[in-house]
Design goal:
Blueprint: H1 10-19, H2 22-26, H3 28-34, E1 39-42, H4 51-61, E2 65-69, E3 80-81, E4 87-88, H5 93-103, H6 106-119, E5 122-127, H7 136-149, E6 153-156, H8 163-173, E7 176-180, H9 194-201, E8 207-212, H10 213-218, H11 223-230, E9 234-239, H12 259-269, E10 275-277, H13 286-301
Parallel strand pairs: 1-2, 1-10, 2-5, 5-6, 6-7, 7-8, 8-9, 9-10
Antiparallel strand pairs: 3-4
Helix pairs in contact: 4-13, 6-7, 7-8
Length: about 300
């Protein structure tokens, strides 16, 4: 993937700051940090909040970039208790969600784009996780939605079987699709290993990597080594802390993920790779926890 395909370059960010753009006026600390490393957030971190509250939290914390989780725009299922007592979507919900995706007006996504612009938060990417359950029309609608949002990057917790179906749409829309990894190395259909990433990259020049360093460590791999060797193919990082050997998500600094080493690597080599906070451990208040994560990053970069 060429530098030209990146959604928002270091130079552009600097130009925004020099021009006195909205983000520069609102958060000089964020701009200062971004001159070293671009600090953003995956909006999934605010998954318990409605979109408007999540966007307000980003601004209040001082986060200048966002990778927008589709769950903040799509309808949420009315959860019901299953036979085992666990809460789950009702039968037929998947069809209802597909109908929404196929009929949602583009103006809705254009309005979201405008809200980001008004808040001075750069919309970096749209996170929509294509999988085997998507029809081709549903996939295309996802690209239409990303276009209406004004982004050139889709991040996807996809699977390997779906990847070939994405090729013609990525080419048609001239859009980068970055594959996100989890840690299930036993499932050959899951993105979890360096080989799974290599398989996707070989299928299209428009495919890239959205590396989750916490999941990567839990799966038994070294993110520092991988980023060093493959940084040209990485569009953004998800920063979280997990323990090795499929360990749990934990507050930052309590796990085995070399967060500081990764941040210093990006800073030292001036990699044009946003580092996105993804708050996923258990905490009381997502806004307070994301704020802690932001402070952790700034201290690690000092």
């Amino acid at each position: 993937m060429s530098r030209q395909s990146r959604p928002f370059s270091r130079r552009q960010f600097g130009q925004l700051a020099l021009a006195g753009g909205a983000a520069a006026l609102a958060w000089p600390d964020a701009i200062l940090a971004a001159n070293q490393v671009r600090i953003g957030v995956q909006s999934y971190s605010f998954r318990t909040l409605p979109f408007e509250d999540a966007l307000k939290a980003m601004k209040d914390i001082g986060l200048a970039e966002c990778e927008l989780w589709s769950g903040h725009l799509e309808p949420k299922p009315p959860m019901v208790a299953g036979p085992d007592g666990r809460q789950r979507p009702p039968e037929g919900w998947r069809d209802e969600l597909r109908t929404w995706r196929l009929t949602a007006p583009a103006v809705r996504f254009m309005e979201i784009k405008k809200q980001f612009e008004d808040a001075g938060v750069v919309l970096q990417a749209y996170n929509l996780s294509f999988n085997d359950s998507f029809t081709d029309l549903e996939i295309e609608k996802g690209f239409d939605q990303a276009k209406a949002l004004g982004v050139k990057l889709i991040t996807a917790s996809s699977n390997l079987k779906t990847v070939p179906r994405l090729v013609p749409f990525a080419e048609k829309y001239k859009m980068t699709v970055a594959m996100h990894n989890h840690s299930n190395t036993k499932d050959p259909n899951e993105f979890a290993t360096p080989d799974s990433f290599a398989s996707a990259l070989a299928q299209s020049k428009r495919f890239a990597i959205n590396l989750d360093i916490g999941h990567f460590v839990a799966a038994g791999f070294d993110p520092v080594d991988y980023i060093t060797k493959h940084h040209e193919h990485i569009t953004n990082l998800h920063i979280k802390d997990r323990k090795k050997d499929q360990g749990e998500n934990v507050p930052w600094g309590q796990g085995d993920t070399p967060i500081k080493d990764v941040l210093q690597l990006v800073k030292k080599n001036k990699y044009d790779i946003p580092v996105n906070i993804e708050y996923e451990y258990r905490g009381e208040d997502p806004v307070a926890e994301v704020r802690k994560c932001h402070e952790f990053i700034k201290a690690a970069l000092a």
